[in-house]
C-alpha cells in the first residue's frame, strides 16, 4: 500500500556529496521510514555545464555505504520516473504554455548584451538592475511587445527565455510562506526579480523543474537546506500559478564551522584536518569511511546536528533514530560542527559493536595485512582486549599487530624509564618459567609473575614495564597478562630473547 508521505533528496551532481547534503538525505530518510513513506532520490542535473562526471555514481555509493537506500531513484525504479531531470525535458516543456497563456509567465527576448547594458546603466546611477515589475515593461518581452510582435519573434526563431511574473502592482507585495521549522516567513515580493523558468537551451531552471517534479512525484514534504529558503516564495507562487497544493516545507539549519562562525565549507575539512565527505572522492580526498568511521556513527552525529530528541542520550542506532526523529524538534539555529565530538560518537559506536561484529572487523584488517587467523576463540579474545582502545577503525592494526609480529623497535624513552640493571635476568627468569609451564590464565600469570619478581627481591612493578616494552615495543597496550596469555609461552620467550640480543 502506498503511504501518502513521500519525501525526496534532490542533489545536483556538481561534485562530491558534502556532509551537509548527507544530513539532508538522512533527515528525509528518517522521516520517510518513521512514517512508512517513500524516499525518492532525484538527480537535479538541468545545469549541464556544472554537472561533474562520476558525481551521480558517487552520491549513490555514499548513500549505500551509509545504509540510506532510496525507494525510488535512477537505479531503484518506481512509478514516478525518470528520476534524472535531464531525462524529463518534455515534461517541463509541456507545462510552459499554460503559464504563459494565463499571463503568469512571459517570453523574454533580451540578449545577454542588452541585459548587461541595463545593469551597467543602473550601476552608474547607483542602482541595482532587476528584471521585475519595475523594469519589465521597458524590456524586450511578450508583455511589453504584445501578442503580434511576440508571435513574429517566436516564428523567426529568435532565442528566448521564459520568466515568471513574480509580482505586479495589483496584489499585496507581502507573501506569507509557511515553513514547518520556522513558522510563517513573510517575504516582500517587490524585492524579487522575475526568475527564468525555462532557458534558451531548452532546459528548465532548477526552480521550475523542482516544482514540477515535486508535484508530479507526489512529494508530501520538502525537507532541504536553509540555503533554499530565499527560493520558497517563488516556489509557492509557482504552485499557486498552476493551482496545485504545495507540499509542506521544512528548511534545515545551516551546519557551521567548528568555530561557530560561518557555514561549514568543503574546504574547512582540508584546512582543519577532518573529513567532510562520506567516502573517498577522486585520488586525494578521503572520506569518513577511509578515515576510520563507522557509517552508523556518521549517521548518529549528523542526526544530532540540528535535532535532538529532548532527552539526555546522544548515542543512537539507525533504528532508534527512525523511531525518535521528528521535524518538530529540528532547531532553527545553525548547528556547530565539532570534529572531536564526531570521534567520540565513533568510539561509542565501536564500543557498541557485538563481539562477533567487532571480531569480523578485526579479521578483515588482519587479512588485509597479509595474516590469517582461524582460531575463532583467539580472535574473539583479542577483540575483547582491544575493543575499548579503539576510536577509529584505522587504529585497529596499531592494536592488532602485537598479536602477529614482534616489535620492530623499542620506544627509547620507555626503555630509559623502566630498564634497570637487573631487568635482563628478571626477563630470563620469566622466559624460563614460561617454557616450563603450560597455558595459563591471565589471573594465574599474574600470581606466577609476581612470584618470579619476588624471588629476585623485587615487586611485580619492576617486571611489568620491561616485559611490556619487550612484547609490544612501548609502555602502552592492552592488559599485559592477557597479551601474554594470547601470545603463548613460545612467542613471549622468543620476543624476550630477541629483545635481549639488541
Ligand atoms: N538540487 C538542489 C541542490 O542541489 C536541491 C534543492 C531542493 O532540495 O529543493 O541542493
In round numbers, the mean pLDDT is: 95
Kindly provide the radius of gyration, computed on alpha-carbon positions and rounded to a whole number of angstroms: 32 Å
Secondary structure class reads: mainly alpha
Number of distinct beta strands: 11
Features:
single chain; 502 residues; mainly alpha; two-stranded parallel sheet; 22 helices; elongated; binds glutamic acid
Structure description:
- It is a single chain.
- It is built from 22 helices and 11 strands.
- It is mostly helical.
- The strands form 5 sheets. Strands 3-4-7 form a 3-stranded antiparallel beta sheet. Strands 1-2 form a two-stranded parallel ribbon. The chain has a two-stranded antiparallel sheet with strand order 5-6.
- A hairpin with a 3-residue loop joins strand 5 (about 175-180) and strand 6 (about 185-190).
- The model has no long low-confidence stretch (mean pLDDT about 95).
- Bound molecules: glutamic acid.
Amino acid at each position: 500500500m502506498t503511504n501518502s508521505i513521500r519525501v525526496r533528496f534532490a542533489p545536483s551532481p556538481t561534485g562530491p556529496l558534502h556532509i551537509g547534503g548527507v544530513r539532508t538525505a538522512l533527515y528525509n530518510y528518517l522521516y520517510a521510514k518513521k512514517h512508512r513513506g517513500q524516499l525518492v532520490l532525484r538527480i537535479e542535473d538541468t545545469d549541464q555545464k556544472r554537472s561533474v562526471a562520476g558525481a551521480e555514481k558517487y552520491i549513490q555509493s555514499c548513500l549505500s555505504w551509509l545504509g540510506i537506500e532510496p525507494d525510488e531513484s535512477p537505479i531503484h525504479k518506481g512509478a514516478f520516473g525518470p528520476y534524472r531531470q535531464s531525462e524529463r525535458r518534455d515534461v517541463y516543456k509541456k507545462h510552459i504554455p499554460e503559464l504563459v497563456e494565463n499571463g503568469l509567465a512571459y517570453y523574454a527576448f533580451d540578449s545577454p548584451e542588452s541585459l548587461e547594458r541595463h545593469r551597467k546603466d543602473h550601476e552608474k546611477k547607483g542602482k541595482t538592475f532587476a528584471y521585475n515589475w519595475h523594469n519589465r515593461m521597458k524590456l524586450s518581452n511578450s508583455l511589453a511587445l504584445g501578442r503580434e510582435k511576440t508571435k513574429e519573434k517566436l516564428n523567426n526563431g529568435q532565442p528566448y527565455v521564459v520568466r515568471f511574473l513574480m509580482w505586479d502592482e495589483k496584489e499585496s507585495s507581502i507573501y506569507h510562506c509557511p515553513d514547518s521549522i520556522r513558522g510563517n516567513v513573510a517575504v516582500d515580493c517587490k524585492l524579487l526579480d522575475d526568475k527564468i523558468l525555462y532557458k534558451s537551451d531548452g532546459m528548465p531552471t532548477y526552480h521550475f523543474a523542482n516544482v514540477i517534479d515535486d508535484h508530479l512525484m507526489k512529494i508530501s514534504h520538502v525537507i532541504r537546506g536553509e540555503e533554499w529558503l530565499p527560493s520558497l516564495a517563488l516556489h509557492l507562487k509557482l504552485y499557486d500559478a498552476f493551482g496545485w497544493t504545495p507540499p509542506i516545507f521544512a528548511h534545515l539549519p545551516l551546519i557551521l564551522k567548528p568555530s561557530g562562525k560561518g557555514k561549514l565549507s568543503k574546504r574547512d575539512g582540508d584546512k582543519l584536518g577532518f573529513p567532510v565527505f562520506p567516502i573517498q572522492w577522486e585520488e586525494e580526498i578521503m572520506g569518513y569511511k577511509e578515515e576510520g568511521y563507522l557509517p552508523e556513527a556518521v549517521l548518529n552525529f549528523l542526526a544530532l546536528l540540528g535535532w535532538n530528541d529532548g532527552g539526555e542520550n546522544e548515542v543512537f542506532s539507525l533504528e532508534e533514530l527512525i523511531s525518535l526523529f521528528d521535524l518538530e524538534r529540528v532547531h532553527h539555529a545553525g548547528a556547530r560542527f565539532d570534529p572531536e565530538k564526531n570521534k567520540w560518537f565513533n568510539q561509542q559506536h565501536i564500543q557498541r559493536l557485538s563481539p562477533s561484529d567487532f571480531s569480523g572487523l578485526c579479521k578483515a584488517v588482519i587479512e588485509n595485512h597479509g595474516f590469517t587467523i582461524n582460531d575463532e576463540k583467539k580472535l574473539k579474545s583479542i577483540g575483547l582486549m582491544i575493543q575499548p582502545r579503539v576510536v577509529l577503525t584505522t587504529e585497529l592494526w596499531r592494536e592488532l599487530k602485537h598479536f602477529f609480529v614482534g616489535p620492530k623497535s623499542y620506544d627509547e624513552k620507555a626503555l630509559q624509564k623502566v630498564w634497570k640493571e637487573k631487568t635482563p635476568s628478571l626477563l630470563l627468569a620469566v622466559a624460563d618459567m614460561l617454557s616450563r609451564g603450560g597455558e595459563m590464565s591471565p589471573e594465574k600469570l599474574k600470581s606466577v609473575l609476581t612470584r618470579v619478581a619476588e624471588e629476585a627481591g623485587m615487586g611485580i612493578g619492576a617486571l611489568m614495564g620491561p616485559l611490556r616494552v619487550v612484547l609490544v615495543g612501548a609502555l602502552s597496550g592492552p592488559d599485559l597478562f592477557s597479551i601474554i596469555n594470547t601470545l603463548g609461552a613460545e612467542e613471549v620467550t622468543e620476543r624476550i630473547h630477541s629483545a635481549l640480543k639488541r
